[in-house]
Amino acid sequence: MHISVALDRCIELLTPAIEKSTSPVFVDATLGLGGHSVEMLNRFPNLTLVGIDRDKSAIEKASARLSQFGDRVRIAHSVFNHFDEVVKSFGYNQIDAALFDLGVSSMQLDQADRGFSYSQDAPLDMRMDQSQGITAADIVNTWSHGEISRILKVYGEEKFAPRIADFIIRERENGPIKSTAVLATLVKNAIPAAARRTGGNPAKRTFQALRIAVNNELEVIEQALPQALELLKVGGRLVVLSFQSLEDRIVKEAFAQVTQSTSPRELPVELPGHEAKFKLIAKGEPASDAEIALNNRAQSVRIRAVERVAA
What we know:
The longest helix is centred in the last third of the chain and has 15 residues, at about 215-230. A 7-stranded mixed β-sheet has the order 3-2-1-4-5-7-6, sandwiched between helices. Strand 2, helix 3 (about 55-65) and strand 3 (about 75) form a beta-alpha-beta unit. The protein has about 300 residues and is of the alpha/beta class. It is globular, with a radius of gyration of 21 Å. About 45% of the residues are buried. Helix 7 crosses helix 8, helix 7 crosses helix 11 and helix 12 (about 215-230) packs parallel to helix 13 (about 245-260). It starts with 6 loop residues before the first helix and ends with a strand. The protein has helices at about 5-20, 35-45, 55-65, 85-90, 105-110, 135-140, 145-155, 160-170, 180-190, 195, 205-215, 215-230, 245-260, 290-295, and strands spanning about 25-30, 50-55, 75, 95-100, 230-240, 280-285, 300-310.
């Protein structure tokens, strides 16, 4: 059964923004199966939802699940770095609240044929939107040693990146690398035995790196957050759930920029128009022990939130 991560905490953080409006607009920028959105629509009968997802399979399933709410729901098949465009296409120039649940979804991990999991054999795909873009197979079979090594090091924080790239280049000389099982075994063999004894599955970092590269995940986050912040009304809130350090760092830095005054630090007074436009509400909170016991995916989550305090 799909369990939405940090559901109660997200609702708690978003509620003050929703309750300020008689006809609030909430954007679920990573709709997935609609777990957070269902709860928001149930809790707030006057709420309108704008849901965004790049995964057509998720759109189909969420649309069926949310059909009970009728015209209170607007759903777009899009990548969330088109946040501003999507929201305005539905006629909204401002919003009351937004949620980003970053990374790969439980549904995508559970569908073996999508190729996200190193524990199940499947074609090397890893696209969140299977209707377009390059696959993980394209990367491992056509990119240069330097390009593969770079993404494994930068996106996977893999210290054995050059060695894994060596093994990939050598393996593909015998024929294309097509399956997750072949790649996972190759990565395991590339990493020295002593380093494999700790840190979980040795393929974890490589699969993360490929998934991020295939879906352009970090750049999309960097582009989307300023758009969401800009559309928030005064009193509006943005909540972001991150599951690995690279995406959490982007969120942390984006929130730090908008919650700081732009007045020169050496001045004893705040210059008019230079005050911070947002305040921090949640600063990288982990899930509770109770939630982690019920939902293993919550183990790595970090919850960050800001509220708009000035126009």
